[in-house]
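User: Okay, second chain of the day. Same drill as before: sequence in, structure tokens out.
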Amino acid sequence: MTFGCYRSNVPDAGRRNLGRGLPTPDAGQTARSGGQSDQVSIARYSERVRRPSLPLPGQPGAKVDARSERWREHRKKVRAEIVEAAFRAIDRLGPNVSVREIAEEAGTAKPKIYRHFTDKSDMFAQIGERMRDMLWAAVIPSIDIESDSARQVIGRAVEHYVELVDQHPNVVRFLLQGRFADQSAAAMTTVNRGRDITLAIAEMVSGELSEMDLNPAVFELAAFALFGTAASATDWWLGGDADSPRRMPADEFISHMTTIMMGAVNGTAELLGVQIDPDQPIHNAVRRQEPAPQA
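Assistant: Same drill. Structure tokens below.
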């Protein structure tokens, strides 16, 4: 089988043997007809063995195997249940949780975990996606990019983020510090999934200011910088160990983070050559910088 086009499953030797048994004209007939009988025989045979192309899975007309679909949905459901169990185990036992402890929380055997995940990195990534989805569900509905000011957007996003971190500190430590062995690369990939939130907000702001024709790369750079700042500051605030106390009260951390983030917003405005009033709705708050008067 060749993906992208249908190809017969008959082995090459079998295809070579398909012509056996065809009526073969004698030499005189061939000579009299100028080879036409060969062409007619081949054409008739081709017509008999011609088969329609088979659609690949997912293409229109492809039949869905109900049993395979049920199995796929079952595996998806089990994976989700294991991720939820891992979340609970990390919350309860701390960021150094083992796969065996996750299996116990899920009420299953350790080998079953590996039947549903490629490896630890795969499960690690799914835990990160679960955290990202929770953050998305908390932050995005709380902001209205058309009516909120920049300070309100940043303040609400930081507030919901810190609340989630405070509810699941061990999960955040687990993700930020990559506690599974050999997980440094996976940790960076997983943590960066949270960057989708800042990228989404940056895209919404950029869209709100589309008529100003501002450089979208600067918005993207700002989103990366803001997320990196939040992740590093969170790691500092939580401390390295599960027993570490918060380095400052949550409301104070939220206030400081909002101020720091607003500084990044003002720096981004300077890069774009605009000025922003942080307390006005974003659409009305941004104007181009006036050129400095010449001496």
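The first helix runs from residue 12 to 17.

User: Thanks, on to the next one.
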